[in-house]
């Protein structure tokens, strides 16, 4: 630590002179005064953000990169102005102005204003280490790829061998328990290295804003003589792969039992459980060999050095499997090399019944391997975007596939009996052309149609050239890509249904729908599950037909006589027990209309008589209101009839469409499934029996019946921590939205409130509920409350969703207010969409009306902690 008089002395000298002070040089670069060296830190928004430079002997760090001091000027105000240059030749400017003992302001070229810094002996959130106390796994040789070439070697005497030089490790630290930070020196050159371990056998090295993934040198270095992915030259299939710790054959992982190399001949014994396999490999040159597995005859194999498999050398006219829509499974095994994270591997399957992207996940082991089995209804579109792999492809029921992705060199290969179409889709991407969202909003429907037809033509021409250049592309590839062009366009066109106002009975133009009906609706893709876009198109097509069909009334009226009969039947069936007072009230209400008619017939129904009679009926009406509120059996009956009306209308529309019965059953199963999802409670037996009569396919039936069983189970399940559900009675007399809001949050003054305005009918709201549990865990033991306000939802559906997603707990509060009160509070809060998330500070002020959603954990964590720290 330098004494403050150093800065005073320099300041006095500068007051007497405006000349540039020449600093000592160390070789090529200027030597920086010792009084400026050290870790300088300012307060960053997030703890993991860059928060200031390390200043060394001849360099200044700038955003993790070493910049050397080419020129230093000490100016009259006591500041030091630097011209800096890094190893790549990039230049920048830097100024540091000492303001006290271990305090300064710093500025870089491009900054609007300087930042206040303090000098630290050890950077914040960093555990100091020495060059000799790094983790044991660091001290070894590290290679890149499957070449066996050593890139880094860390030795136990504090040295790094890299780029043909020996570097001294000058300092080391462990940052945020996730990253090792090193400063190394060779001659006059310095380098900052950032080491992390996404997997035990993968090290990520960041330096000069470049990331490089390396692996420990194999325990059997002889593997590098034949490592890689080998393709059968005759068939074009990827048959076998050799990696440092295992081999891959027939979509399975095999261990190395023994390796014997004699000149260019290699014999490898592989082991999988009790099974052994002998592989004989004779190298012809660096990229080819003859290879035999087990007792098979030796064949020529070539090494795949490209990102994708080359074109298959033989034709293939096999169509996609169509199993008649019987649920089967697909097994996906994989090896993710140099992977970016260890979060579970995920596959999305677009489902025509649930109308969702169903996600299936599995753990990744320490070597980057996984096995995932997931259900499919037929040959099926799937999406793999784990680690931004962005693979849209198609799989067939009952098949196994092996996926290999190397995130360092972007290689993607698939092994398997039916893997050809997957490899072809990876190797040959279609033309990417589309109408942007903002562009489309400005277009009329006919202009949009014309532009879409142009895109279809451009994509088809591009595809025709591709097929001409690659004549052996398979029948599956040809069929898939043709249908992909058609239904990508069809999906976009039918989204235009939302451009017309159905409340004003507006329709899409006849010419528009004529094109859809003639060019796109006929000849559907088969199987129907092969393309996600076909399901999206069909959903919107049926939705549009439903929109323009004559409206049917969803109003149900029940006479007082019918109400009495229903309640007496409910009691006979053992569904409810009525008191004598309730029976009398129902009977009096049943006679209500008859008495009114008698008074009208006798001309005695004047206003005074009617008022007196209404007054007389008040006790009975209150008893009936209490009865209806006490048990939802009557509301369930009414809702069941409304649902039946709605379903019958949709089924009638489906039956009117020209399509085969299999497709109709898929759409009908979707109709019933969606009804379950909308109500979040079991359907009445009458509707379930109707469903079984309408849909005979057992696999389609299982969707609805399984979900029905789930909601039946949830309905009978007790709510955990029922104290989270707040009663409405204390708020019953409040009608003003702001007063309601203030009353609700009053008990939580001194806490940060995370508000979620949602509804049981809202799909995106429910999608976010799956993240609520992990979001709440972020704030356990903190002064944070999760407040849920539910919009226009029945009591049973409200409670069912709370139970389904486990939304209760010590820091969770739920309200399901009557509609009028909920509307008033939403008007005050300016709620315009669902879900809406807001943050309320400790004083009860709304400070963020667009708070991060629960799935954005880091953003939510930072936003809440800022409020907690105030």
From TrEMBL:
SUPFAM superfamilies: Thioredoxin-like. Pfam families: Thioredoxin_8 (PF13905). GO terms for cellular component: cell envelope. Keywords: Cytochrome c-type biogenesis, Disulfide bond, Redox-active center, Signal. It comes from the Bacteria. Residues 720-869 form the Thioredoxin domain. It is found in: Cell envelope. The keyword Disulfide bond applies. Residues 1-24 form the signal peptide. Gene3D superfamilies: Glutaredoxin. The keyword Disulfide bond applies. One of its GO terms (biological process) is cytochrome complex assembly. PANTHER family: THIOL:DISULFIDE INTERCHANGE PROTEIN DSBE. This is TlpA family protein disulfide reductase.
């Amino acid at each position: 630590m330098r004494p403050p008089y150093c800065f005073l002395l320099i300041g006095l000298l500068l007051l007497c002179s405006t000349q540039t002070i020449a600093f000592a040089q160390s070789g090529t670069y200027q030597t920086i005064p010792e009084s400026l060296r050290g870790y300088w830190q300012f307060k960053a928004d997030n703890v993991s953000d860059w928060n200031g430079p390390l200043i060394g002997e001849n360099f200044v760090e700038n955003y993790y990169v070493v910049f050397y001091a080419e020129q230093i000027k000490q100016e009259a105000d006591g500041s030091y102005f630097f011209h800096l240059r890094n190893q790549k030749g990039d230049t920048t400017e830097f100024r540091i102005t000492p303001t006290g003992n271990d305090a300064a302001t710093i500025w870089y070229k491009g900054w609007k204003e300087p930042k206040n810094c303090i000098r630290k002996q050890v950077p914040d959130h960093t555990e100091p280490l020495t060059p000799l106390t790094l983790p044991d796994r660091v001290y070894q040789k590290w290679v890149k790829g499957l070449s066996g070439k050593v890139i880094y070697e860390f030795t136990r005497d504090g040295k790094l061998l890299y780029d043909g030089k020996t570097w001294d490790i000058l300092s080391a630290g462990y940052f945020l328990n996730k990253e090792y930070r090193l400063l190394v020196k060779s001659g006059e050159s310095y380098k900052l290295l950032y080491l992390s371990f996404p997997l035990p056998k993968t090290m990520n090295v960041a330096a000069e804003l470049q990331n490089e993934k390396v692996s420990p040198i194999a325990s059997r270095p002889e593997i590098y003589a034949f490592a890689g992915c080998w393709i059968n030259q005759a068939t074009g299939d990827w048959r076998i792969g050799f990696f440092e710790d295992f081999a891959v054959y027939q979509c399975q992982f095999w261990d190395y039992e023994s390796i014997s190399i004699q000149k260019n001949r290699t014999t490898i014994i592989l082991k999988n459980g009790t099974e052994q396999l002998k592989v004989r490999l004779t190298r012809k040159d660096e990229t080819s060999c003859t290879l035999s597995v087990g007792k098979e005859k030796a064949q020529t194999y070539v090494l795949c050095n490209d990102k994708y498999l080359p074109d298959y050398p033989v034709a293939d006219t096999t169509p996609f499997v169509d199993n008649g829509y019987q649920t089967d499974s697909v097994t996906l095994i994989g090896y993710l090399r140099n992977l970016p994270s260890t979060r579970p591997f995920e596959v999305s399957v677009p489902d025509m019944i649930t109308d969702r992207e169903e996600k299936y996940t599995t753990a990744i082991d320490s070597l980057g391997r996984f096995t995932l089995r997931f259900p499919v209804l037929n040959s099926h579109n799937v999406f793999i975007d784990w680690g931004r792999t962005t693979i849209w492809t198609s799989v067939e029921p009952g098949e196994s596939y092996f996926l290999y992705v190397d995130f360092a060199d972007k290689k993607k290969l698939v092994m398997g009996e039916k893997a050809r179409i997957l490899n072809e889709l990876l190797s040959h991407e279609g033309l990417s052309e589309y109408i942007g969202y903002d562009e489309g909003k400005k277009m009329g429907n006919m202009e949009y149609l014309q532009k879409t037809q142009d895109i279809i033509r451009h994509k088809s021409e591009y595809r025709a050239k591709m097929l001409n250049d690659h004549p052996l592309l398979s029948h599956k590839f040809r069929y898939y890509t043709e249908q992909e062009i058609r239904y990508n366009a069809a999906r976009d066109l039918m989204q235009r249904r939302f451009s017309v106002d159905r409340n004003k009975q507006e329709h899409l133009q006849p010419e528009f729908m004529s094109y859809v009906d003639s060019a796109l609706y006929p000849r559907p893709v088969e199987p129907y599950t092969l393309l996600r876009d076909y399901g999206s198109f069909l959903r919107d097509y049926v939705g549009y037909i439903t929109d323009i069909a004559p409206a049917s009334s969803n109003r149900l009226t029940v006479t007082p006589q019918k109400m009495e009969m229903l309640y007496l039947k409910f009691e006979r069936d053992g569904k409810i027990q009525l008191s004598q007072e309730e029976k009398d009230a129902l009977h009096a209400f049943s006679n209500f209309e008859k008495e009114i008619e008698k008074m009208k017939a006798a001309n005695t129904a004047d206003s005074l008589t009617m008022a007196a009679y209404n007054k007389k009926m008040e006790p009975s009406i209150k008893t009936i209101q209490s009865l209806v509120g006490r048990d939802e059996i009557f509301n369930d009956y009414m809702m069941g009839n409304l649902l039946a009306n709605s379903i019958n209308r949709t089924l009638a529309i489906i039956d009117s469409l020209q399509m085969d019965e299999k497709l109709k059953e898929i759409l009908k199963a979707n109709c019933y499934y969606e009804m379950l999802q909308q109500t979040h409670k079991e359907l009445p037996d009458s509707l379930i029996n109707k469903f079984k009569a309408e849909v005979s396919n057992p696999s389609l039936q299982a969707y609805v019946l399984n979900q029905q069983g789930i909601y039946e189970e949830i309905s009978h399940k007790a709510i955990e921590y029922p104290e989270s559900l707040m009663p409405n009675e204390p708020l019953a007399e409040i009608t003003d939205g702001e007063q309601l809001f203030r009353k609700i949050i009053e008990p939580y003054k001194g806490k940060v409130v995370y508000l979620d305005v949602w509804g049981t009918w809202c799909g995106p709201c429910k999608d976010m509920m799956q993240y609520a549990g992990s979001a709440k865990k972020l704030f356990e033991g903190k002064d944070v409350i999760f407040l849920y306000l539910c919009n226009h939802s029945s009591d049973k559906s409200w409670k069912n969703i709370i139970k389904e997603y486990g939304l209760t707990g010590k820091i969770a509060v739920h309200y399901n207010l009557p509609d009028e009160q909920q509307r008033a509070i939403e008007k005050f809060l300016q709620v315009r969409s669902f879900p809406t998330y807001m943050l309320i500070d400790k004083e009860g002020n709304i400070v963020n009306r667009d708070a991060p959603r629960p799935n954005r954990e880091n953003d939510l964590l930072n936003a809440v902690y800022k409020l907690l720290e105030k």
